[in-house]
Design goal:
- The chain is of the alpha+beta class.
- The protein has helices spanning about 15-30, 60-70, 70-75; strands spanning about 1-10, 35-40, 45-55, 75-85.
- The protein has one domain (about 1-85): Alpha-Beta Plaits (2-Layer Sandwich), CATH 3.30.70.
- The longest helix has 18 residues, at about 15-30.
- The model has no long low-confidence stretch (mean pLDDT about 95).
């Protein structure tokens, strides 16, 4: 099942994102369930959130993955949405 994780950073949290980025990227690679991933950007090109497409067994697995993300553990996100997603193109 594909799940889109859409997370928005807390205001003023860019340094938290930068400090945790290496651990986050390692987690993306090590867990083996990430189909696509990248930062959301503001008009100035600054990172303000994340979009991650997870390929997992069910919503619980997506929730568990999201909870283990170093960004989440660092308190980076103001909110996180997990939404079932269907790839068309």
């Amino acid at each position: 099942m594909l799940i889109a994780l859409i997370a928005r950073d807390k205001a003023g949290a860019l340094q938290t994102r930068l400090d945790t980025r290496d651990a986050h990227v390692a987690y993306l690679k090590e867990t083996g369930v990430v189909s696509q991933a990248g930062p959301l950007l503001d008009d100035a090109g600054q990172m303000i959130g994340s979009l991650v497409i997870l390929d997992v067994a069910d919503m619980q697995a997506a929730q568990d993955w999201a909870a283990g993300d170093p960004y989440a553990k660092a308190g980076l996100f103001a909110n996180v949405d997990l939404i079932p997603w269907k790839k068309v193109i």
